[in-house]
Structures are given as C-alpha cells and as structure tokens.
Design goal:
The complex is a heterodimer of chains A (about 290) and B (about 270).
Chain A: E1 4-5, H1 8-35, H2 48-54, H3 64-67, H4 73-100, H5 105-117, H6 120-130, H7 137-143, H8 156-184, H9 188-196, H10 201-212, H11 214-230, H12 233-238, H13 250-260, H14 264-281, H15 283-290
Helix pairs in contact in A: 2-14, 4-5, 4-8, 4-11, 5-8, 6-8, 8-11, 11-14, 13-14
Chain B: H1 2-31, H2 52-58, H3 65-96, E1 97-98, H4 102-113, H5 118-130, H6 137-160, H7 166-173, H8 178-207, H9 210-215, H10 224-231, H11 239-259, H12 261-273
Classes of the chains: A mainly alpha (about 290), B mainly alpha (about 270).
C-alpha cells in the first residue's frame, strides 16, 4: 500500500530514474516525432514526409502481390505477424499442456527455451544455418521427400518465409514458459470435477484450460506482437533485408534510411509509424496497469 | 492408457529433438574440418574433431572475439548494475509513496517498455555526437542503463507491492529514515528479485546489437555481437568459423540461464505477468 503523501523521499527514489528516462528516452522520442514533420532544411512540411514514405515501394508495394516479393517492409511485418503469432500461441499452449504430463518435461522446456536465451544476432546465424543448401537440416529433411536442396534465405520468394519460420523456432520457448506458469495456477479440483462429470480431455482443454489461461494469452500475444514489430537483428545478419528488399522489415528500413541514406527525416517517419503500431499493440498492457489498484 | 502415455512421451521427445538439432548441427560443424561436412554434418563416415575453428574465431584477424568478449563485458557489467540500482529505487518509490501524477508517471514508464529502439536512434546519435560520446563505451553504457530502466522499474515495483510494509513501519517507529530503511531492510529482502532482474538485464545488454551498431564504430572497439556479421565471408560462408563464433557468443547468456535458471524464468514470467 502506498503510505505517504508528498514525502520528500519519493523524489530521492524516483528522480534519478525519471531524469535518465527523460534525457535518453522521452526527449529522443519527442525529437523523432518532431523531425518527422520537417524537411532536411528544417522547413515544416506537415504530413508530406508521411505521404512520401507511405507511398514508397520500400514500405508498401502492392504490385508485389501479383509479381512476388518484395511487398514492402510494412507488409512484411504484417505477414510476419500473421504467420508467427498464431503459431507461437498454438505451439506454446499445446507444448505447455503436453510437457506437463511427460517424463522430463522440464528438460524439454529448457531445450525449447534455449532459442530465447541466445542473442538474436546468433539466432539469425542459426536460421541461416538451418536453411543452408549443404548443411541445413531443412534441406536434409525435405530431401527425404525428393525436394531439390537450396539455400532458402537467398531467394526472394522464400527469404522472408524462411526467416519467419526460423523465428518461430527461436521464440516458442517464451510462450511455452508463460503458459506453463499459467497452468500451475489452475486448481486441480477443476479438472477432477470435470472428470467426474465425464468430460473428455478435449472438452476440459477447451472449457477449462483455454478460458482460464486467457490473461496469459493476452500477455503472450502482446509481447509476441512487440517482438515481431521490432524484428531487426535476425534480418540484418541473415539477408540484410534482401534479396532486393524481399525480406526487409520496418526496423531495418528505418536503419537504412537513417544510417545508410542519411535521410533523418524520412527515417523518423518510418520510426514513428513503427512506434504507432507498438503503442497500439501495448494498449492491453497499459490498461492493466491503469486498472491496477496497488 | 499406457500406450497413450508412451506415445505422448515419444511425441514430446521428438519435439525436443527438433528443437535441439540445430544446436547439435552448429556444434558438429564447428568441430569438424570442412571436407567432412560436404555430405552433411550428420554424416559420420569419417570423424576427426578439431578445435581449430574456435581458435580462429577467438583470434580472428579482423574481428577477434577475444577482444569482443572483453569489450562486451566492459559495457554489460555497468550496463546491468547502474540501471538495477536506479530502477530498484524507482520501483520502490512507485510502490510506497503517493504523489501527484503517480499513476501517470508509472503508465509513462510502461509505455516506454513498448518502444522500438529505432524510435530514439536519430536523436540519440545526435545527442551523443554533441556530447562527444560517439564510439565511446560511456555513451553506450548510459544508453543501456536508461533503456533498461522501464522494465526493471516495472518488475521491481510489482515485486515490492507483494512485500508487507510491517517491518518498514516498525523500523520507522524506531526512528530510521526512509533511505536507511530502503538499504537496510528492503534491499536484503529484494535480493532474489534483483537477481532475476540482473540475469535478464545482463543477457539483454550482452545480446544487444542495434544500440551498439549506431554508437560504436572503431574496429577494435566493436562489441562481440557486432563481430558476428563480420565473420560471414562475402562470397562463401565459412560455416566452421561462423558456427564457432555463434557458439562463443551465445555461451555466455546460455551459461547464465543454466546457472540461474530459477531466477531467469521467474524474471521472464514476472516481467510479463506481473
């Protein structure tokens, strides 16, 4: 319980953090938003940068839908989410349930979690390795079914999808761990009562497990969405967004605009658009903090 | 029933196998000379393990990991301790005091959790440039410290709200002031939570790539993660070398995870579940 009103000690505890945040986080965010409305000479141009960026082929390239990749960085992020998010949730939940009743389940959990522990720059190397023509286990596996071996990450039509599926391998550990922690909180009597009532495993799963884990699902989905939107290292080290932009994503596009093309204003616009998405996604998180009575 | 149980176990361990095969793969690729890998690292017709690849990654002529490891430690240790101290205090402040805009400040902290690093990249680059902190570890350490504050504050505040205030009240009646109470009573109780935050923050600073990429340029100052892309040849990937480098870079966070697993998982769960 908060105990004192207007204590002078509150400043002692809070000011260092708030000052540091103000200088290195809040001010830069504001500054980025600010320069996104100006041109390189410092003239206010309103939303002109935004319309330029949003109509550029690097961000959204709808003609790619008939021609093939690239489809633009923003569309690639959305595809990433569309594939990665459902897989993360389904795999995480089913593995957590499965591993609960299996010998050595916690060892398996640790193995799956290893992907989460390594630096994502190494994660990218691992993905390249898996999809490599000669050494990749993916080709060895597909070869059993008569597929021609290739380095999946170097072709425009398969680069992005390889990275997405590779990133599932990296991130699933996160949802497994959270769902496992969530399963621990469900009282055993619920399952015993369901069994007495003659409910089968599927029915218990859909009527008890899934509804009671809904708060966990919200957290898993929020964190996973943030991760997918912020994807950078994996793409940078595997394909650098290529070939020909076929695996480019927003965070990388911002880096290219800012530190390769040295166009800070355009880069700021990309950053702001990306930030708006992350803020939208974090609404449930903010709402739960706002409603928290502590 | 028994058959089902056996089937489930086999299925689960098959999944574990799928997850661990890439690790076995890089390990085998590192240990074996190139000519043995042509038919796949899973082919064991001849097997002559060697540690040569580790040595060449460690002493690489342009991107030696030896130097990278030292550099990353120089950044990651203060980049863990500074925010841990400041954010633990802030988390305590948020959990124990009432003041105007308390909730708004806290929500602000939570919102910064969601920000991509790209959002601050340009102004940070300009700010560090004007402070003469480009290509300096001090700048990067400060930035990592600030960037780690929101989640540690959030995490510690959630931890402190679960601790009863009785002991603090008693100490206050005995005449101790709030700062003494914090250092003498609260910090010892909070050590497990601080341990969790420490493991995670260190791992994240160690693993960071983007912030280092925009601030550190000199070849001999590059952090360990920045050296990985340099190991990749231009035309041909030397997989033996790259695998060795990958293993060296990931071994530090993996060791932390294995040694502090309980704290690590608690941190991960507590950080996101509150």
């Amino acid at each position: 319980m908060p105990r004192k009103r207007g204590s002078k000690y509150a400043a002692f505890f809070l000011l260092p953090a708030l000052i540091m945040l103000a200088v290195f986080v809040i001010y830069p965010v504001g500054r980025t938003a600010y320069i996104s409305f100006f041109d390189e000479n410092g003239t206010f141009v309103g939303l002109k940068n935004y319309s330029k960026v949003l109509t550029s082929r690097e961000i959204i390239d709808l003609s790619g839908f008939s021609r093939g990749f690239p489809l633009g960085a923003l569309v690639h992020n959305i595809i990433w989410i569309a594939i990665h998010l459902p897989l993360t949730i389904i795999l995480g939940l089913s593995l957590a349930v499965l591993l609960k009743g299996v010998k050595g389940g916690s060892v398996i959990k640790s193995i799956v979690f290893l992907g989460m522990v390594m630096p994502m720059i190494v994660g990218g190397v691992m993905i390249n390795f898996m999809f490599d023509r000669n050494l990749g286990i993916v080709n060895a596996f597909l070869g059993l079914f008569g597929f021609q071996a290739k380095s999946w990450t170097v072709y425009p039509d398969s680069a992005l999808l390889s990275l997405i599926f590779g990133s599932v391998w990296l991130w699933t550990g996160f949802s497994v761990i959270l769902y496992s922690a969530g399963l621990e909180t469900i009282p055993k009597d619920y399952y015993e009562a369901a069994e007495l009532d003659g409910a089968g495993p599927w029915k218990t799963f859909t009527k008890i497990t899934i509804p009671l884990l809904k708060p966990i699902t919200v957290v898993v989905a929020t964190m996973t969405l943030l991760w997918e939107l912020k994807i950078f290292d994996i793409v940078y080290v595997t394909t650098a967004g290529g070939p020909g932009g076929a695996s480019n994503v927003m965070a990388l596009q911002m880096y290219i605009c800012a530190f390769r093309a040295l166009d800070f204003n355009r880069a700021a616009v990309v950053a702001v658009i990306l930030t708006l998405f992350t803020l939208l996604v974090s609404i449930p998180l903010v709402r739960s903090v706002r409603d928290d009575k502590r | 029933m028994k058959i089902r149980r056996v089937a489930l176990n086999i299925f689960a361990w098959t999944i574990a196998l799928i997850w661990i095969v890439p690790f076995v793969g890089v390990f085998m690729t590192t240990l074996r000379p190139l000519d043995e890998l042509i038919h796949g690292w899973w082919n064991f017709d001849s097997f002559h393990p060697t540690l040569e690849n580790f040595a060449s990654a460690w002493n690489h002529p342009t991107a030696a990991l030896k130097k990278g490891m030292v550099n990353s430690l120089i950044v990651a240790i203060p980049g863990t301790l500074i925010p841990l101290m400041i954010a633990t205090m802030a988390g305590y402040g948020f959990s124990r005091y009432r003041f105007p805009l308390r909730k708004s400040f806290f929500i602000l902290v939570v919102i910064t959790l969601a920000l991509p690093q790209q959002t601050i990249a340009i102004p940070i680059f300009q700010l560090m440039n004007s402070l003469n902190l480009i290509d300096s570890y001090l700048g990067l350490i400060l930035l990592h410290s600030a960037w780690g504050l929101p989640w540690i504050t959030f995490f510690m505040r959630n931890f402190f709200t679960t601790i009863p205030v009785a002991a603090e009240e008693a100490a206050r009646i005995d005449g101790a002031n709030d700062i003494v109470i914090f250092f003498k009573i609260i910090l010892p109780v909070a050590l497990p939570a601080i341990g969790s935050a420490c493991a995670l923050q260190f791992t994240w600073v160690w693993s960071d790539f983007f912030l280092a990429l925009i601030l550190i340029y000199s070849p001999n100052k590059l952090l360990i993660t920045q050296r990985i892309p340099l190991m990749r040849g231009v035309y041909n990937v030397d997989w033996g070398l790259l695998s060795a480098a990958a293993i060296i870079v990931m071994i530090v966070p993996i060791l932390i995870y294995l040694l502090l697993q309980r704290y690590y998982i608690k941190g991960m769960v507590g950080w996101s579940l509150k």
